[in-house]
Amino acid sequence: MEKERKCSIRNCENNAIRSLSPIYSKILIKAGFSLNEESNRLYLCKEHYKELKKLKSKEDRLERWRLKG
User: CA 63 to CA 66: how far, in whole Å?
Assistant: First the structure.
């Protein structure tokens, strides 16, 4: 990312390494995270991006199981 941004998770002061579509905010809110503000992009630091990947993987796995049966 060109411009230094802070993580979009409330009370996190780390610099963001990823910029994502706000559609992923639903997964984070469902997991109990609170976001700073609504914006056009979601900025995540390394730790929160790693957590999002785990949550998304779990969500995708559950969706595949739901569609199979």
Answer: 5
Beta-sheet strands, E only, within 1-69:
18-20, 42-44
Helix (H) or strand (E) holding 42: strand 42-44
CA distance 69 to 23: 26
**For residue 13, how many other CB atoms are within 10 A of its CB?**
8
Length of the chain in terms of residues written: 69
Angle of CA points 27, 13, 22, to nearest 5°: 30
Domain segments of the chain: what residues? 1-63
Task: Kindly report the pTM of this predicted structure.
Answer: 0.84
The pLDDT tens digits of the residues spanning 17-61 come to: 999 998 998 899 999 999 988 788 999 999 999 999 999 999 999
